[in-house]
Amino acid sequence: MKFAVIETGGKQYKVSEGDVVKIEKLSDYKEGGKVTFDKVLFIDDGKT
Fold first, then answer.
1. What pLDDT, on the 0 to 100 scale, is given for residue 48?
2. 43: how many CB neighbours lie within 10 A of its CB?
3. Buried b vs exposed e over 10-23: b needs ≥16 C-beta within 10 Å?
4. What local confidence, expressed as pLDDT, does residue 25 receive?
5. What pLDDT does residue 30 have?
6. What are phi and psi of 17, to 5 degrees?
7. pLDDT below 70 — which residues of the chain?
8. Alpha carbons 17 and 4: distance in angstroms, whole number
9. pLDDT value at residue 40
10. Alpha carbons 47 and 32: distance in angstroms, whole number
11. What pLDDT does residue 35 have?
12. Closest CA to 6 of 26, 18, 21, 28
């Protein structure tokens, strides 16, 4: 299973491709737009 742990708003979230994540309001976000998170804490690509 591929996933990543990201941080935004002082909270950490475990996410996978295609996930919809409910987070605090982002000031520059427009509904239906894409968001880029610069604090990626961990990535698991499913390989050992």
1. 67
2. 10
3. eeebeeeeeeeeee
4. 81
5. 81
6. -55, 130
7. 48
8. 9
9. 96
10. 32
11. 82
12. 21
The closest alpha carbon to 8, from 47, 32, 30, 27, belongs to 27
The CA distance from 35 to 46, in Å, is 24
Please report, as a single letter, which amino acid is at residue 21. Answer: V
Indicate the Cα dihedral angle 14, 22, 33, 29, nearest 10°.
Answer: -110
- Residue 23 CA, chain-centre distance (Å), reads 9
Q: Mapping DSSP to helix (H, G, I), strand (E, B) and coil, where does residue 42 land?
A: strand
Other CB atoms within 10 Å distance of the CB of residue 44: 13
